[in-house]
Design brief:
Layout: H1 12-19, H2 27-33, H3 55-58, E1 60-66, E2 72-76, H4 102-115, E3 119-127, E4 133-142, E5 150-156, H5 159-170, H6 176-187, E6 193-199, H7 200-203, E7 218-224, H8 242-252, E8 261-263, H9 266-273, H10 276-282, E9 288-298, E10 304-314, H11 321-358, E11 367-374, E12 384-392, E13 398-408, H12 409-428, H13 433-447, E14 464-471, E15 476-482, E16 488-490, E17 496-498, E18 520-523, E19 529-533, H14 545-557, H15 565-576, E20 585-592, E21 600-605, H16 611-625, H17 630-650, E22 655-661, E23 665-672, H18 691-699, E24 702-707, E25 712-719
Antiparallel strand pairs: 1-2, 1-5, 3-4, 4-5, 6-7, 6-10, 8-9, 9-10, 11-20, 12-13, 13-14, 14-15, 15-18, 16-17, 16-19, 19-20, 21-22, 22-23, 23-25, 24-25
Helix pairs in contact: 5-6, 5-11, 6-11, 11-12, 12-13, 14-15, 16-17, 17-18
Length: 720
């Protein structure tokens, strides 16, 4: 008859306690394994056998009962491996934990109390009275009535169980710092102090190849336990001294093959390091005597060393061959996780570099620009395709672009970069915002094609984009949107609100859903503030999206005209961005300035044969008032004559001439109702066709064409 109590009659504490006899070694076995009780138990109380008993004896169970105040009521920690744990009835259970683990474990304990749902087999460290730590597998169970409270069962980690648990824990993050920290915490089961030092190229995400010995550079990526270290000791984030980097690298690459080494005692360590400065930098304390150095090796021909893991022990706890084998196996199993984190770090760096490169650098004489980009998470899995850009167009206008590409990582970054560069090229070529969006729509559809797409399994369909072009002469903005949230405009008198932009599907929508992109034109007098943004700034699951946009309008309206725009942009983001970001946050602020009234002049002329003479007379009078140099005045008059003559010859309707004085030169514009594109041909010496454009080309620093709803504008700039 089975004597095990039934669940209905016994608490989890009783059930665990009744099972302890099956796992606690008998006296003879205990004498065989020594005071430590279990290899990997990390008691530091004596040597561990070369050939331990089977795994059943390595797994030592214990149980602790706690009440609803998380104080210990009963405990059964009689196995030798648990010696040194002060589980005194009436004391808080958290006294058994390292200080850094108290908040997390307390939260788990209270969660089990509230929900009754058990936490099973979590790797945890327990703190002994002498400051050493024991790695266990801890489960938290609800205790049955009438005792109530909780039962915490602990299993001193067996060697094979610990290897499995460590590998599982190390592979849960793609952040290289967290990966190194997880490895160091796992290595602590074999020593008093564990550290992980990575090649600097691994830390930064670069590729690692064979390097000259003189260029080797190691950076400390992780160190456990967490404590106050003496001055001069290398802690996480610090670079190891150059001599120490070379010594460690040479030690683990003996005969050009990565190998683990053990320096058995303090004298040998000091002899190898050879310098008191290096001893202070690398040896964690006076009690540390021996160290095992295990290379993190990436398999290949030749193998590549990613870094070095170090485990330090006291003099009364020497390393045995079986333990060194376990350390090598653990590090070997987890080296590929470190390399995956390196690759992820590299992708993260590339994506951020691309996004930072797209951020506007500055405004200009006619507009002020400020932008903020804030990724959702530190790793590349959270780096999305949000982007903003602002750049001056050759004809004196300024383009403002914001977009949100579907997805994350390199696929989204590649699409983001392509759309941004394509938008800039098309806008610089004179296309209107709606025409640019039509081209971007076709590009997104093309990239989604299985054969010509950027990445297998990635789709940018549904990406959004908003393009605004500011004219500093007319003080008007032309804006088109593809599925993007409406910009917010704050007028000089303080009135603020979102623009009434006609909604349109995102880029790459189905053919049946496609409609012509609309153009919204509005006045932006000097002193106006325009805010373009992505949804991460205003979206909150707790409030409607319209309320989030209204909050943005209020925050932008609070920006004072004298405020530095970049500081104001950061303040707006700090006010509105959610505490727990689920998406990237992007904001572009543009404060309009425009040209002064006295720096521009516009004339409307009939398309007659005397139009060129009339234009020269008007422009000459203006240039005299501007005190323009004689050579510049002659060039501008000839330029205006040629452009007006071509407009009369090839177009119909009235002609508009506009002259702008800027810091770079004089900008001349001639608008007509024609839609033909002027082209600079290769005419012969006596060929009169196209002679005017050759004159324009020689007189100007740059010239171009842009199209309007009524025709085209030919512009050209002459240096002053």
């Amino acid at each position: 008859m089975d004597s095990t109590p039934s669940p209905s009659s016994s608490s989890p504490f009783d059930m665990v306690s009744s099972a302890l006899g099956r796992y606690i070694p008998r006296v003879g076995a205990a004498g065989a394994v020594g005071p430590a009780g279990v290899e990997g138990g990390r008691t530091g109380r004596g040597p561990v056998p070369e050939d331990p008993a089977d795994d059943r004896q390595e797994q030592i169970l214990g149980a602790v009962n706690v009440d609803r105040e998380l104080r210990i009521t009963h405990c059964n920690l009689d196995a030798p491996v648990f010696s040194g744990l002060d589980a005194v009835p009436g004391s808080p259970f958290v006294d058994l934990l390292p200080p850094g683990d108290v908040p997390t474990v307390t939260r788990r304990l209270r969660q089990v109390l509230e929900t009754g749902e058990a936490h099973v087999a979590r790797v945890q460290r327990l703190r002994r009275a002498d400051g050493s730590e024991l790695v266990v597998s801890m489960s938290i169970l609800s205790a049955v009535a009438p005792q109530g409270g909780l039962t915490v069962s602990v299993i001193a980690m067996a060697r094979r169980l610990h290897l499995y648990a460590a590998e599982t824990a190390i592979g849960t993050s793609l952040d290289i710092g967290e990966t190194a920290q997880s490895l160091a915490e796992s290595l602590l089961a074999w020593g008093d102090v564990a550290a992980v030092d990575l090649d600097f190229a691994v830390w930064t995400g670069e590729g690692v190849t064979e390097q000259a010995q003189g260029r080797i550079r190691l950076r400390r990526a992780a160190l456990v336990p967490d404590r106050a270290w003496p001055e001069g000791y290398v802690t996480p984030g610090d670079d190891l001294p150059g001599d120490a980097s070379r010594l460690l690298s040479q030690a683990v690459r003996r005969d050009d093959a990565p190998q683990a080494i053990v320096i058995p005692d303090r004298k040998a360590v000091e002899r190898v390091l050879g310098s008191p400065r290096l001893v202070r930098a690398l040896v964690p304390g006076d009690r540390s005597a021996g160290v095992a150095c295990i290379p993190l090796v990436l398999d290949g021909v030749p193998p590549v060393v990613l870094g070095v893991a170090e485990v330090w022990r006291r003099a009364d706890w020497p390393f045995h061959d079986s333990e060194l084998f376990d350390l090598q196996e653990l590090v070997a199993r987890t080296s590929h996780h470190v390399d995956l984190a390196r690759q992820h770090q590299r992708e993260h760096t590339q994506v951020l570099a691309l996004q930072r490169r797209l951020l506007p650098r500055t405004g200009g004489d006619t507009i002020q620009i400020a932008s903020v980009y804030q990724p959702a998470t530190p790793d590349s899995a959270g780096v999305g395709g949000d982007w903003v850009n602002s750049f001056p167009l050759p004809d004196g206008r300024t383009a403002l672009v914001v977009g949100d590409v579907v997805g994350h990582g390199l696929g989204a970054a590649a699409t983001m970069g392509q759309l941004s560069m394509e938008a800039r090229a098309l806008l610089s070529a004179g296309l209107a915002p709606d025409e640019v969006l039509e081209h971007l729509d076709e590009t997104v559809s093309l990239l989604d094609d299985a054969e010509s797409g950027l990445a297998a399994g990635y789709s940018a369909l549904g990406s959004t984009c908003c393009i605004a072009v500011y004219d500093p002469v007319s003080h008007r903005v032309s804006l088109s949107s593809a599925g993007h949230l409406p910009p917010v405009l704050v007028e000089p008198d303080g009135r603020a609100g979102p623009l009434a932009v006609r909604p349109h599907p995102g880029l790459g929508a189905e053919f049946a859903l496609r409609e012509p992109f609309g153009v919204h034109t509005f006045a932006a007098p000097p002193g106006s503030l325009l805010a373009l943004y992505t949804d991460g700034l205003v979206e909150d699951p707790a409030v409607p999206i319209d309320e989030g946009i209204d909050r943005l309008a209020d925050a932008v309206a609070a920006v004072h005209p004298w405020d530095t725009l970049q500081q104001a942009a950061r303040r707006v983001v700090a006010t509105l961005a959610p505490v727990r970001q689920r998406d990237d946050v992007t904001l572009l602020l543009a404060r309009t300035i425009g040209y002064r009234k006295g720096d521009t002049a516009t004339w409307r002329l009939p398309a007659r044969d005397d139009a060129a003479d009339r234009a020269r007379t008007l422009v000459a009078a203006l240039l005299r008032r501007w005190h323009t140099r004689d050579d510049t005045r002659d060039s501008v008059l000839l330029l205006v004559s040629e452009l007006v003559t071509n407009a009369v010859r090839f177009a119909e309707g009235p002609i508009t001439v506009r002259l702008i004085r800027s810091g770079h030169g004089l900008l001349c514009e001639v608008a007509d109702t024609g839609n033909g594109r002027p082209r600079l041909g290769r005419g012969g010496l006596l060929d009169d066709h196209g002679r005017g454009l050759h004159v324009v080309h020689r007189l100007t620093t740059r010239w171009g064409v842009r199209w309007t709803d009524t025709g085209k504008v030919v512009w050209a700039e002459v240096a002053r």
